[in-house]
Amino acid sequence: MPETLPTQETLLEFPCAFPLKIMGRSDCDLAQTVLGIVLRHAPGFDGKTMEMRASSGGKYVSLTCTVVATSKLQLDDLYRELSSHPLVKFVL
After folding, report:
1. CA-CA distance, 19 to 17, in Å (whole number)?
2. What average pLDDT is seen over the chain?
3. CA atoms within 13 A on the CB side of 10
4. Which of 2, 36, 57, 73 is most deeply buried (CB count within 10 A of its CB)?
5. Measured between alpha carbons, how far is residue 9 from residues 13, 15, 67, 71, 72 in Å?
6. Phi first, then psi: what are they for 10, rounded to 5°?
7. What are the residue ranges in the chain where pLDDT is below 70?
8. CA separation (Å) from 51 to 22, 40, 62?
9. Given this model, what pLDDT does residue 28 score?
10. Which structural domains are found in the chain, ordered by start?
């Protein structure tokens, strides 16, 4: 019987720079909240590198955080926590 090879869970090679785009309502706590969550999962993240853009109407903000991802589990946990926060609408 032929040996089956394990399926690869991700095409990413770790560690790697991984940009996260987080969108939410324009709220004074959004950036600080996102920073806290990102730092919990990627302690080496430099908050000064976070990019912030307001929507044309000013109602929403997008934040880009490029983290050094060390595993699929780390990224999954980060996406899960960000997506479940009430201030966050989408995570890409």
Report:
1. 7
2. 92
3. 13
4. 36
5. 11, 15, 20, 11, 8
6. -150, 155
7. 1-8
8. 10, 19, 8
9. 84
10. 16-91 (3.30.70.260)
Q: Is 86 helix (H, G, I), strand (E, B) or coil?
A: coil
Is this model's pTM higher than 0.85 or not? yes
Helix, strand or coil for residue 65?
A: strand
Give dist(CA 56, CA 38) in Å, integer: 26
Q: Is-contact 35 50, C-beta < 8 A?
A: yes
Contact partners, residue 79, CB within 8 Å, separation at least 6: 20, 91
pLDDT given at position 23: 97
Take residue 68 and report the two structure tokens written for it. 């050094």
